[in-house]
Amino acid sequence: MSDVLRFDDNCVFCKIIKGDIPSTKVYEDNLCYAFRDINPQAPTHILVVPKVHITSVAEVDRHNEALVGHMFTVIAKIARDEGLDEGGYRVISNCGPDACQSVPHLHFHILGGKKMREGMV
Length: 121
Prior knowledge:
Elements: H1 12-18, E1 25-28, E2 32-36, E3 44-50, H2 65-81, E4 89-92, E5 108-112
Antiparallel strand pairs: 1-2, 2-3, 3-5, 4-5
């Protein structure tokens, strides 16, 4: 992965990462940023996004696989910090319009704090 951050000026998550749009930060390091969802679907609903613009899971490749692996380490840390590790939690990434990906910037939802429904997410 390049050390130069790549942003898309039209992307809402890029604007959040740059601080142009306010968010409730949960975690930040040099590779990723995590914040609370403004329309939570569970008592705990946090989004984890890379600090480089990657459109979706479909763009994960050998050049950014270490970044995505790091994001999952961060997801586990956030889940522990939020007290979700004992009861469990869901990690979701929608990919493309048929999956209802609303922001075309790779992101993982951490959902927890309640019993989730069985079946399709």
